[in-house]
């Protein structure tokens, strides 16, 4: 997504879009040409534009044009035209079926299905278009914290309070594998980009790496001082990032099984940490109500995103790496511009804590889940 403020600063002072020397005598055709030039440049720099509302768009345009000493006679026409090109998300569908609190949701690789996990001890597969439940997996004997599709979409991995990780065949609905090794609740699980490995994290303070084909644990990583809330492979599969109740984030080298970087700055449990699409950054969220962006190479904290009024439960980059989405116990989902750190949309529609979110691979759809036992589709 384009950094909107930088975009306007650039385009407004560009020679191609400067005001006519006659000032207010600028012709109608010249005004229309300038407007279309701005729109064309906007569209050429981004496929996605997410703003809060038409009212906000008008306010931003007016403010930035005034700061740049642009004649304002054509603003009304300009913001009406540009609004047609702006995408902002709305709740379009909500469905339910779980009998317990829903802990997470995630898209399949083709964006056609959603997987969800719940305190009702089930994993469920849903059709995105219809909202119809396609499958229900039963086998865990405790709350299920995370369920995730494999990269090829043929399998789902889930982890539970019952200390196990289970793999399920999506087509048949049958349980195909149980992985045991953690000493207490398994809080997160993630497939490697090639689908050959699984990494898991637990309240037992360990991270474990599993070979899917061999069906066994091949490595154990230790370093956090308290339970580990989440773990994720980097896009190239060479690193792992983990977040913990010890208020730290650690980036690990998988081959060596050693820490590469440790990020400190949150003042509460770090609930999630996720890599950017290019693997160069990590975004995290916390019980301290903030979202933070970190540089992997330097270990530096780059930005603190403030807006949520309660603990932030989940966070993720959009596929383009320019937008971040987060959800919170404050019942909201918020979108943030990575470059400016500004909040660009606040989504409301679920009536309890929003516990999990995911973004489709094309960036056009958000799925969320809530303690109100509903799954929301936002487009």
Automatic annotation (TrEMBL):
Keyword Repeat recorded: yes
Keywords: Repeat, WD repeat
Record keyword Repeat present: yes
Positions annotated as WD repeat: 95-136, 137-178, 179-220, 221-262, 263-304, 305-346, 347-379
Protein name: WD-40 repeat-containing protein
